[in-house]
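Blinded run. Sample ID left blank on purpose so nobody reads anything into the name before looking at the predicted structure. Input follows.
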Amino acid sequence: MEEEMYILIAKSLNREADAAEQQQLEDWLNEDIANSDIYENMKAVWQETDTLFNKPEFDVTAAWENVASETIHKTTEKKTITFRKWITISSAVAALLLIVFAIKVFTTEDWISVTADKKMMVVNLPDNSKVRLEAGSTLKYPKTFSKEHRNVSLQGKAFFDIIHKEEQPFTVDANTVDVSVLGTSFYVTTDDAKATVTVTTGKVAMMPKDHSDKIILTPGNKGIFKDHKFNVVSDTNFVYYQQGLLEFKGVSFANALSTIAAVTNSVISMDKNLSNTVQQQLIEISFRDQQLEKMLDEICLITNTRWKKDKEQYIIYGR
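Blinded prediction complete.
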């Protein structure tokens, strides 16, 4: 494979490829299954360098010399570099690491990492867009956005209210997917297994990391990406993501719990011995920017019930 294709792959992985370059890469991937293997090897190298650069004390010069010693300075030997037991790349791909390294070291911007430890916090981005970051979530963004794009990354849950800029798309790296907009508001949850996006205003594009597929979401849509597949459902609670407000007036206890489970991406069930009278009692209660367990504390208080966490689900019992 020619060097220009290596560079094109690196630009795509670094989210710097334009539409024409991305299409050129996709055409090349479709030409031969071997090309996909090369792409996956390079992607693995790219992910390994993410780990390297995230170390608290990273010496660029020393690292460059280390990489060069294994590639440029040993071209007379057949050499393999093993990053993990399941990733072994040939010396040809090892040479590619120099390209990856150069792009990552010399184009990396200064990034800020913000973690909402115990409560929700509002983050103002360099373009004055706002992010409501939920407790336990981490947002990373550059001190200054480039002229061509606005890229951030999220681990956890956050509501984004993005200023419209036609010439400067906004992209969220949400672990398993990329979420791209020009200007809109939307809610993102992400973990290692699944990503969900709920749109409150505007349009949002949701794509897997290799950009092999894409869905467009509009207000009230929730896009779910799991097991390499997309699913789109209607979400009537999308205002909650925008305002952080849940109000129940004359709603059954059972229905209120279903809504809370939906907006928090949680599993909440009622004990089989809980009477139908308790389940169907009508309640009035409101929550604003409260965590799931705090909401359960309050709703169980007014319904004379209690909750218990069992692995990944919450079970409601009678008192």
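Unblinding after everyone has recorded impressions. The chain has a mean pLDDT of 79.
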